[in-house]
Amino acid sequence: MKNTDLNFEYKYGFSMPEKHVFKSRKGIDEDVVRQISSLKKEPSWMTAFRLKAYKVFRNKQMPVWGADLSKIDFNDIYYYIKPTEKQVNSWEDLPKEIKDTYDKIGVPEAEKKFLAGVSAQYESEVVYESIQKELTRQGVIFCDMDTGLRKYPEIVKKYFGTVISLYDNKFASLNSSVWSGGSFVYVPNGVKVTLPLQAYFRINAQNFGQFERTLIIAEEDSFVHYVEGCTAPIYTTSSLHAAVVEIIVKKNARVRYTTVQNWSKNVYNLVTKRSKVYENGVMEWVDCNIGSGVTMKYPSCYLVGDGARGEVLSIAYAGDSQHQDAGAKMIHLAPNTTSRIISKSISSKGGRTSYRGLVQVSPGAKNAKVYVTCDALIIDEKSRSDTYPDMRIKEKEVDIQHEATVEKLGEEKLFYLASRGINKTEAEGLLVNGFIDPVTKEIPLEYSIELNRLINLEMEGSVG
């Protein structure tokens, strides 16, 4: 998986000396899968789950739609790296090279801003975790997935793999066989977590596959906001990120899941994210994709309860050597369900964005309400944007709205701003920031500022 076009500026492209206590051999087979499960001292049912998933992965075909995945070599990947001997709860107890890495991307500062909890994953394992005592008192569980399996096996076994089956797609099958790390969140009945839970995922090694697994269960009348950020250094060889996120939203509960993904351009970002939403529950995905060479990601809501609501707010930016194939899926399976998809994409410097969406209203899902809008902004003549909407409406009593726009960064708008004394670079930034504002205003302030800054940095020199 070679990527030699690395001539771009990337804030988190630094790499630290690679140190670890264990590293699997390259490639994947049953022995590697068994070794991962054995090292983690997992129960037999999880080992069996992994092995079954590996067989499915081996037999499933690669996707023949979307981005070009032909350069992925599954035999040229390290599937498990253990960077430290044990997880720590004190920042100062981390090895220096890991601490320095997370200092650079702002993990300590984020915790100082009174986030409810912070979890940091480096390579395959969560290495640092902190949670406020108040959350523990309320019965909220926020830990890494491995700890969740060890400490709360009954809950994990009940829900693990129930939203995203190990048969779902090739990369979900791969994750199911070699998953490591990720987050486990459980919010009891009636508990409102007022501050975000936050996770960071960092790839530091070359030719590495990161396969975190996140499971969030929000019991009735609860609320939680989970925020994840992702970074990786720049290498001439590519890395693979294939995560799985499963979310269960019970009756009258609400979950918001925010992602700001800024992987370097040598990363294949192939992620399966899905929620199951019960009666009057609300699921909100806020999905921002700036980095990676290839992204294929379609956050989904299965609206299974009467009155359930789902929302996806999405931003994708594709620059030189990037293909962002992103979108959303809304599956209406019950009456009076509501979904909203707002997608904003920007392509420049020859980059390509694709919106790929599915809305399905099943028989019996009466009074379903659907709103979809896909807006694409093309900065220059070299860039490209595509829209692939799929609407499958199998019920008559529904309200469906769909609209899509494609526009270029108009010279007349730039001229108008120039006439007001605004230079060209600033004018371009203002127009782009205005274009994505409906989504960025839904992101925590520090993330929206960083998102705007990163997009402006990527766009420098794009026009003219």
From TrEMBL:
N-terminal signal peptide: none
Residues annotated as domain SUF system FeS cluster assembly SufBD N-terminal: 43-198
Domain SUF system FeS cluster assembly SufBD core: from-to ranges: 201-435
Source domain of life: Bacteria
Swiss-Prot/TrEMBL GO biological process terms: iron-sulfur cluster assembly
UniProt family annotation: Belongs to the iron-sulfur cluster assembly SufBD family.
Name used for this protein in its record: FeS assembly protein SufB
Organism, as annotated: Candidatus Roizmanbacteria bacterium GW2011_GWC2_37_13
